[in-house]
Structure formats: structure tokens, C-alpha cells
Amino acid sequence: MLLLTGATGSVGRALLRRLTATAEPVRCLVRDPRGLGSDRVRVQIALGDLADPPSFRNAMRGVTTVVHLAAAIRDQPAGSIEELNGIATWRMVRAAERAGVQHFVFMSSVAAARHDRTRFLRAKALAETAVLASDVRHTVLAPSMIYAPGDMFITLLERMARLLPVMPVSGRGQALYQPIWAEDVADCVMAALAATPGQFGSGNGHARFELAGPQTLSYEQIVELVLRAAGRTRRIVNVPTPLTSRALRVVEALMMSRAPATWDEAELLEVSMLSKIGTADAAGLGVTPRAMGEVLGA
Ligand SMILES: NC(=O)c1ccc[n+]([C@@H]2O[C@H](COP(=O)([O-])OP(=O)(O)OC[C@H]3O[C@@H](n4cnc5c(N)ncnc54)[C@H](OP(=O)(O)O)[C@@H]3O)[C@@H](O)[C@H]2O)c1
User: Fold this and answer.
1) Per residue in 120-138, pLDDT tens?
2) Which residue ranges have their beta carbon within 6 Å of ligand 1?
3) Atom 1, ligand 1: which residue's CA is nearest?
4) CATH topology for 2-146+181-211+276-290?
5) Which residue of 3, 4, 5, 10 sits with most ligand 1 atoms within 8 Å of its CB, as the best mutation to test the pocket?
6) Is the pTM of this model over 0.85?
7) C-alpha pair distances (Å), 84 with each of 6, 75, 246, 262, 286
């Protein structure tokens, strides 16, 4: 039995399609099974929440492999960014050890760092430390920016382009990314799952892969590309970081969880997420990531 968290997300949906085509039974830890779409009839469902440790301890029964994708880039009513990403992953690893799980696959970020300016990347670094310290065989996947047509990020940009005469970009928009398509990430996860212990990484079966797309693009170039794909022409206007931060904090205070964007999310678009080895790890897994313009049809 394989336990998948984050099955309703961009990578999760792409991965679940691949997993349900294999013989291994899949259990999905979800807050709301409707997010699984038609795949919900092909999997076992464990209702649960990263903020509710007993829910994922129960979901771990009889599980040999965990793929932990669930994450939150904004605070939720039941837990902060630190709790949902850092502490929940630590707890999930402990639960996996107790349940006798044989392989724990964790999606980190290539930019995870203990002293990063963003809360999310600091929390991911803590989570990664917990995974790396575990004796359970583990695979860490550390991607740059992940995108998929119709995901929340691209949908938000398209909506802004429809509603606004100009396209606001927080700060200088010069942070650099190697965007990788969620479908390519899912192929990498499948390859990592199929690997025999010790095939990659150290002899003890632990491995870490950096996942990057073939191009290095600034945030501003990514916005231009999404606009082109959507058939819109908008002038990009750089909004000073302190102004964006203040404005989004006000929006969040007023709209709470309905806020279209939060400062914690916007700040992530001011931090470069680069792998020095580019597509090498993906290639090692037998995957050739496609360029963003090609995927979006720009
Ligand atoms: N997207 C990127 O640019 C990027 C970059 C680096 C690393 N990553 C990492 O890659 C992984 C997959 O990313 P993604 O883009 O596929 O993520 P995503 O589309 O944002 O999906 C997040 C998933 O986490 C689930 N989730 C959120 N809060 C939860 C909670 N409290 N309890 C249980 N589940 C919860 C969501 O479920 P609901 O349907 O219930 O909301 C959803 O399935 C994540 O670990 C992410 O941090 C992503």
C-alpha cells in the first residue's frame, strides 16, 4: 500500500493518474475527497489534515511507501506555515518509522534553507532535516518552481491580466527560476519509486534529486510568458516590495482565507530557486523536462 498526501495538488493529480495505472493499491490522505475527481473511485480515501496528527498516523496502517507532497504556502485556520510544512513532516516521518514504512518520499524545495527570508522555505528546510535524519529509506525531491496549465498561480496571473490594465509585479521581478512542469515532476517521482535501494545516492538507499526545467527565467519573464500564452499584452509595473507587503497584509486581514494572494505567497516570487546542476538529476531519472513556453503554448 502506498500513501499519497497532496493528491489533489498539481503534482499530486499528475502522479495519481500514473499510480492508479500500476498494480500497487493507493491510499490518499485528503481533506476533501471531491478534489480527487474521478480518481476517487480508484483509491482508498483517508480523511485527514496536516494539522491533525492522529489522522495521518491512522492513514499509515499497512503502508509500505509514503509519498508526502501536501504542503501549504499560506497559514490556514488549523495551522501555520511552520506547523503544516515543518512540524507536520517531522510528525509524519515519526509515524512512518513506527508504522514500519520502507520508503518515504518527500517533496522539498531546491531553495529550502534554514535562514531564508521566507517562512515557507525555512519550514521546508526543517522538514527536510527531519526526513534526512530518519533511518527509514528516504528520497528527497527538491524542485525549482513547479507549474501546470490551470494551476492556481497561472490562473491568478490570467485573472489579473483580464481585470487589470497593467500587470503588477512585486519588487524588481528578477528572482530566477527553472520552472518544471508538474507532469515532468510526476514522471520523476515514478522513476524514484521504481528505483532499487542504492541505485541512486548513497549505498544506504537514501537519495536526493534536484528537479529543474531546461530554462532559467526571471519572474518577470515567466509573467511575460504566461501573458503571451493567454493572448494578453500588459505592461509590467514593478511595485516596491514594502508596498506589496503592506497591501497584501491588509487584503489578508480583511478577506482572511478568501484572500486571492497573501504576502507569504508573493514573497516566494522574490526568492531565486535554482539548481546548479539544472536538468541533470531529472535526466538521471530518465526524464527530459519540457520548456515552459512549449507546455503553455506561448
Ligand atoms: N508549486 C511549486 O512551485 C513548488 C516549488 C517547490 C516545491 N513544491 C512542493 O511540491 C509539492 C507539490 O506541490 P504542488 O504545486 O503540487 O502543490 P499544490 O498544488 O499547492 O497542492 C498542495 C496539496 O497539499 C494539500 N494540502 C494543503 N494543506 C493541507 C492540509 N492542511 N492537510 C492536508 N493536505 C493539505 C492540498 O490539498 P487540498 O486540496 O485539501 O487543498 C493539495 O493537495 C509540495 O510539497 C510543494 O511544497 C512546489
Assistant:
1) 999 999 999 999 999 999 9
2) 6-12, 31-32, 35, 49-51, 69-72, 76, 84, 107, 109, 143, 145-146
3) 146
4) Rossmann fold (3.40.50)
5) 10
6) yes
7) 12, 8, 24, 16, 32
